[in-house]
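Technical annex, item 7. During the second reporting period the consortium partners agreed on a shared format for inverse folding records so that results from different sites could be compared directly. Each record opens with the tokenized structure and is followed by the designed sequence. A conforming record, contributed by the partner at site C, is shown below for reference.
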């Protein structure tokens, strides 16, 4: 067994062992190399067809066409490589942020460190919900149960007790508490040895990516059929076979934006990276996208709606004695204010017993770091520990603890048997009703007295008053017991401690934003009904009734759905109730987001459409089950993610509709010209230039549009909402018809002056039309003057660069040779500019009228 000091390792010794044994992490899954990313840019079906066409053109002596196709394919591949490499880099940074933490004893006190820094010999402390960070031999196991299914396949948790019991890396603590010494880390653990035999598993596709994949396949079949029809039609009117083959091939490429799924994945990855700045970490790319469609958010109270900075504010003792407590947070410099001044341990026998109970029945610890008090442990226990410090309670000897009954969401209490104050004494703390259930006496100056009716009523009244003031109320009790295995019964009630956890100041506005966006917010808390109602009122949640967990258990499915149709808050609930509430809401067709932090929340987080785990107080098991991790545990962050999800979906709609409308203009021009029997309006290389160079850059920039102010004023979109949709199809057809017809008009107007000039002008006109139409797709409802003309500077930059590229295509000799263009005169540019104006002015006018009338256009 690796040697370790009773107080754990020192920082210096831990650093030495880390250098010797290396980080506590498994061998990295295979990282995709830049070369592999580059090569797969040329593996798409249509890209391979283009390469084949380039080969055929070269074999037939069409060197310029072959060079042009090759250059376009190369530039498209390089652009795709840059975008995908950025996405890979962003995702790698996100994965690094998912590194879990563990609690170890270093330099004599507990601290949270990254599991990668754990070394053999470390003293590790684990509780329910923690992932076991290494192979560990236990020297303390209190009612410990471990889920070892990742190693053994056994679904039932395994009890761990006795000396030298072992737990292994990758397993999960589902109940109890344990301490132990690390024996092996990283690849030397049992889990690491198994992991070396397994390969990496690919990322699962998102709903949106699958939807886009279906769209691309459908368009692919249509493109091949239409391209073939163009070849046949061209041959029928006497066109050259090679020209028509290249035109049909290019038209197929024009119809299908074949890189669309990859661009969407890149957009979501970069969006997920950007969400970290909003304190949210998407564990799966579909998380933000799905949350954007959420219609119900089921949220915890503590730490999510409130600040989770528990501070004992009031102490009530039997005899109706109430004391206030000064100070905030975990700084123990405050005091307990009595009628004649500060009270300390020993001034009042009942208060002294209560402070002993608060300190002994507790796993939190306080220590100073750089002059600041730090708390390690659960916030409620930290507040009770700080209260005991303020009352100058003596520090207990941990060796005096004989046994422990761990807290659970079912029991709602915890107890410890200790000999710190003489004979064995059982100390218990928990929810008032859970403690009162096992109490038979009330503490008093003259000793315990039977808890008869009036005395119980007095406790209930004090409890209701404290909870009604927004305090979280904890009850404490104790009793001498015959031995360490004593039952929790016939205890003496010591008093109540009121903990204040005020609502976060930004939460009321976030709740109001949800209501404006048509998203319902339901509070589900383990706290008391009175406290839950008080906090709901403060944050702006409408409440007609508070429903307890017992009532949820007793309700039928139909009764529960009827309750959920009202403005309700759920209190005194267990994690199992969350699962039932999620299922009931989903049965009504709701898209449900569920927050959670405990090990027992994991099933509900998985069952919800979007599981949201707490990053600060959340257990490792909850984080593993969730789609999204809130790095600040703040409800307002969820609202920011909803806004981001809606922005991302709308941006996908923007650039998909924009790309398709651009392609539609080319298709209209080519097909109409074939039926008219004229010479080719666009050459194959020109079509490829438009679709693989100019359109793609503009579309990606369009996907970076910022959220509009009205984005949180609409109801949630249905999950089955299409990317194109009827309104989008109308836009595509309208813009495509105009661009194609206008380009055709330019071609035939200038055809008498020469085929090359007419083709160059039509080619340039369609490119300019596509660039100018992008303003109409920036928002489907608001004009540019409303959202800000310069609010997306990257779009303006992309627009200028692509227009400059087209100017180069017209005037730069190398590109003139590749694209077979000739210089245009000023009068030609004036004609093109005048024809482009309606593509900007008409949509802006329509949207301006709608805004001025207070109406929204269709999305």
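Designed sequence (site C submission):
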């Amino acid at each position: 067994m690796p040697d370790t000091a009773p107080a754990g390792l020192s920082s210096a010794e831990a650093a030495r062992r880390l250098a010797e044994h290396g980080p506590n992490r498994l061998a990295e899954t295979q990282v995709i190399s830049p070369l592999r990313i580059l090569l797969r840019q040329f593996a798409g079906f249509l890209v391979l067809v283009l390469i084949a066409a380039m080969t055929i053109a070269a074999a037939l002596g069409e060197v310029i066409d072959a060079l042009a196709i090759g250059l376009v394919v190369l530039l498209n591949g390089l652009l795709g490589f840059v975008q995908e490499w950025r996405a890979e880099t962003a995702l790698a940074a996100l994965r690094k942020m998912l590194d879990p933490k563990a609690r170890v004893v270093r330099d004599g006190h507990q601290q949270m460190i990254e599991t990668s820094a754990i070394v053999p010999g470390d003293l590790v402390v684990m509780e329910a919900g923690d992932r076991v960070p290494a192979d560990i031999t236990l020297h303390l196991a209190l009612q410990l149960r471990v889920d070892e299914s990742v190693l053994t396949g056994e679904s039932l948790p395994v009890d761990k007790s006795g000396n030298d019991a072992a737990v292994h890396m990758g397993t999960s603590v589902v109940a109890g508490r344990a301490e132990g010494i690390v024996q092996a880390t990283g690849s030397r653990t049992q889990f690491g040895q198994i992991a070396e035999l397994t390969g990496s598993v690919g990322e699962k596709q998102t709903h949106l990516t699958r939807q886009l994949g279906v769209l691309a396949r459908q368009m692919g079949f249509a493109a091949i059929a239409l391209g073939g029809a163009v070849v046949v039609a061209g041959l029928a009117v006497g066109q050259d076979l090679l020209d028509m083959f290249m035109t049909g091939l290019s038209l197929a490429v024009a119809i299908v934006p074949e890189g669309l799924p990859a661009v969407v994945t890149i957009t979501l990855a970069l969006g997920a990276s950007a969400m970290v700045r909003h304190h949210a970490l998407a564990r799966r790319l579909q998380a933000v996208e799905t949350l954007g469609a959420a219609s119900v958010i089921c949220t915890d109270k503590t730490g999510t709606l409130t600040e989770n900075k528990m501070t004992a504010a009031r102490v009530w003792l039997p005899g109706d004695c109430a004391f206030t407590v000064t100070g905030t947070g975990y700084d123990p410099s405050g005091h307990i204010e009595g009628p004649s001044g500060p009270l300390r341990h020993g001034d009042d026998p009942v208060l002294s017993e209560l402070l002993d109970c608060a300190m002994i029945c507790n796993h939190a610890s306080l220590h100073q770091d750089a002059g600041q008090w730090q708390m390690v442990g659960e916030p409620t226990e930290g507040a009770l520990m700080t209260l005991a410090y303020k009352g100058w309670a003596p520090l207990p000897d941990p060796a005096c603890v004989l046994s422990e009954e761990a807290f659970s969401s079912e029991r709602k209490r915890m107890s410890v048997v200790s000999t710190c104050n003489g004979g064995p004494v059982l100390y218990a703390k928990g929810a008032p009703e859970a403690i009162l259930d096992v109490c038979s006496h009330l503490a008093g100056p003259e000793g315990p007295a039977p808890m008869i009716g009036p005395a119980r009523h007095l406790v209930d009244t004090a409890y209701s008053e404290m909870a009604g003031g927004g305090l979280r109320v904890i009850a404490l009790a104790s009793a001498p017991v015959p031995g360490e295995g004593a039952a929790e019964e016939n205890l003496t009630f010591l008093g109540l401690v009121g903990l204040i956890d005020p609502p976060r100041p930004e939460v009321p506005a976030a709740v109001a934003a949800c209501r404006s966006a048509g998203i319902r917010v339901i509070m589900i808390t383990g706290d008391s009904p009175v406290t839950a109602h008080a906090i709901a009122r403060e944050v702006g949640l409408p409440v007609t009734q508070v429903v307890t967990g017992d009532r949820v258990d007793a309700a039928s499915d139909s009764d529960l759905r009827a309750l959920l149709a009202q403005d309700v808050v759920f209190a005194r609930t267990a994690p199992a109730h969350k699962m039932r509430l999620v299922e009931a809401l989903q049965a009504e067709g709701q898209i449900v987001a569920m927050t959670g932090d405990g090990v027992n929340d994991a099933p509900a987080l998985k069952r919800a459409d979007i599981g949201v785990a707490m990053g600060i107080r959340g257990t490792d098991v909850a984080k593993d089950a969730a789609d999204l991790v809130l790095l600040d545990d703040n409800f307002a962050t969820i609202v920011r993610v909803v806004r981001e999800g809606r922005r991302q979906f709308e941006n996908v709609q923007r650039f998909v509709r924009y790309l398709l409308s651009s392609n539609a203009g080319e298709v209209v021009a080519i097909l109409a010209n074939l039926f008219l029997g004229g010479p080719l309006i666009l050459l194959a290389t020109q079509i490829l230039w438009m679709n693989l160079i100019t359109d793609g850059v503009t579309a990606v920039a369009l996907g970076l549009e910022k959220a509009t102010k009205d984005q949180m004023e609409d109801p949630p979109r249905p999950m089955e909402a299409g990317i194109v949709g009827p309104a989008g199809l109308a836009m595509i057809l309208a813009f495509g018809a105009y661009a194609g017809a206008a380009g055709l008009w330019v071609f035939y107007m200038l055809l008498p002056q020469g085929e090359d000039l007419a083709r160059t002008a039509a080619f340039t006109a369609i490119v300019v039309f596509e660039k100018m139409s992008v303003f109409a797709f920036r928002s489907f409802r608001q004009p540019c003057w409303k959202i800000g003309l310069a609010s997306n500077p990257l779009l303006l930059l992309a627009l200028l660069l692509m227009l400059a590229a087209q100017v180069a295509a017209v005037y730069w000799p190398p590109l003139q040779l590749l694209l077979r263009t000739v210089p245009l005169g000023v009068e030609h540019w004036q004609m093109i500019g005048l024809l482009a104006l309606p593509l900007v002015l008409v949509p802006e006018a329509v949207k301006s009228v709608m805004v001025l009338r207070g109406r929204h256009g269709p999305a």
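Residues 336-487 form a domain with the Calcium-transporting ATPase, cytoplasmic domain N fold (CATH 3.40.1110.10). DSSP finds 29 helices and 28 strands in the chain. All partners now use this format for quarterly exchanges.
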